[in-house]
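Students often ask why inverse folding is considered easier than folding. One informal answer: many sequences map to the same fold, so there is more than one right answer. In these notes we will look at a single instance of the problem. The structure comes first.
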């Protein structure tokens, strides 16, 4: 995978899947951006996945901010901090197609 993800915000466009007749009125969601010319982020998405998908751009941005911290926050052990940082960096790599 190359390139960058489609920037947020993302939102639910409809639940009728009208652009996919085989799934019309299926109750599945379509997630899009508000920019003209963008393809849908997800055409057929189960509703229980919608909040996570819509939050994905903001979650990635938050992880990147946390990964830039150069010190362990007060009240967190060095071991916990290093573990959390490793998980954050792994998630960032996965989201950006490096793993």
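Output (designed amino acids):
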């Amino acid at each position: 995978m190359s390139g960058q993800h489609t920037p947020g915000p993302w939102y639910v466009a409809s639940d009728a899947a009208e652009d996919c007749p085989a799934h019309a009125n299926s109750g599945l969601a379509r997630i899009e951006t508000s920019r003209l010319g963008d393809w849908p982020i997800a055409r057929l998405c189960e509703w229980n996945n919608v909040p996570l998908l819509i939050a994905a751009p903001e979650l990635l941005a938050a992880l990147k901010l946390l990964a830039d911290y150069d010190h362990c926050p007060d009240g967190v052990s060095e071991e916990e901090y290093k573990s959390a940082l490793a998980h954050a960096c792994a998630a960032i790599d996965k989201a950006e197609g490096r793993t």
